[in-house]
Amino acid sequence: MDVCGDKGCSVSSKQPDRAWDSYLDELKQYKEQHGNCLVSSRTELGKWVTNQMREYKYRIQKRRSSMTNKRIEELEALGFDWYGKYVRSRKRLRQWHANVESLKKYKAEHGDCAVPYKYQQNPPLGKWVHNQRREYRQQCEGKPCSINSDQISLLDEIGFVWAARSVQRRETWHKFLGELMKYKDTHGDCNVPQKYQNSHSLGEWVRRQRDRYKTRVEGLPSTMSDTEIEELEAIGFRWESKMELIREDQSRQTSKTNEHHNLDYQKNHSSYVEKGRPSFPDSGNWVSYKGRLYHVIVNGKT
Q: What is the residue-wise DSSP string for 28-79?
């Protein structure tokens, strides 16, 4: 519908000093070089393009405008975007890829793409990751979404975590890791008692990490990842519990004591044999032998 006629409603005083046709020729040259009319608004030509969008909008709203039918036809012949949809789309695409690069950096640092929703170091990244899951879920449900198959494939290639449950588990794991680090700062080690009074859940979590590690070492299916192992070992985590360490120490002490007693026995036994007494090849008579040996020593008989 022709709202204001071929001459337009009126000529805006905001029209650039250079002739309209000169800008149009410049826009044609830009289109030949770049394949589109998406000129940056930071340039003089870009400001002129923005003015054309505004004048066209004024015309549609039946306001004063310098936009005529002839100008509309000439711009549309170049594939002019009146509403800046392609410009906004291109900006969104650039921002999307920028977020992908941020996600790659996060993975290089943390070993996965499970960015928490409230990621303090980069809050927009956490929200963006959350939005990608939502858009993906809507696509799976056949609902309108802003994510396409190429973007999904790209995220799959870098190990994107689509399931929110996995992210929640990861967030919970890091929460307990932070509590364990605070415990170590206070107590000097990571040997949290299972029934730790200040946090029963922390003691239970530490026990589960040891169980998960043991299961993995035994070659059984385990949910413990290499990253989790590295993060725990980085803060000095011991895979043996405090009680296991105590039992191991007691076992070593017992072994040393038994070894000492055996040496004493061998010494006394050798002395007795050297004096012409028979040895006992039959271990079943060991107790009887020890009794006789005792009487020999006590009574002073040789």
A: HHHHHHHSS----TTSHHHHHHHHHHHHHHHHHTT------HHHHHHHHHTT
Report the C-alpha gap between 161 and 296 in whole angstroms: 79
In the structure encoding, which two tokens stand for residue 171, read together?
Answer: 């967030």
The token pair at 213 is: 């590690």
Instruction: Please list, in sequence order, all residues whose beta carbon lies within 8 angstroms of the beta carbon of residue 185, skipping any fewer than 6 positions away.
Output: none
CA 213/CA 35 separation, integer angstroms: 57
**Token pair 């992210």 in the structure block, residue:** 167
Tally Cβ neighbours within 10 Å of residue 228. Answer: 19
Distance between CA atoms of 78 and 203, rounded to whole angstroms?
Answer: 69
Contact (Cβ atoms closer than 8 angstroms) between residue 103 and residue 94? no
Instruction: Convert the pLDDT of each residue in 3-26 to its tens digit.
Output: 454 444 444 444 444 589 999 999
Query: How many angstroms separate the CA atoms of 138 and 145, rounded?
Result: 6
Q: What tokens were used for 47?
A: 């400001």
Distance CA(183)–CA(161), nearest Å, equals: 30
pTM for the model stands at 0.39
> What is the spatial distance between Cα 282 and Cα 229, in angstroms, rounded to a whole number?
52
pLDDT tens figures, 59-107:
988 899 999 999 999 999 998 888 766 566 667 888 999 999 999 999 9
Long-range pairs for 111-114: beta carbons < 8 A, 24 or more residues apart: 111/225, 111/226, 111/227, 111/230, 112/159, 112/161, 112/170, 112/225, 112/227, 113/155, 113/158, 113/159, 113/160, 113/161, 114/161, 114/166, 114/167, 114/170, 114/171
Asked if 212 and 224 touch (Cβ cutoff 8 Å), the reply is yes
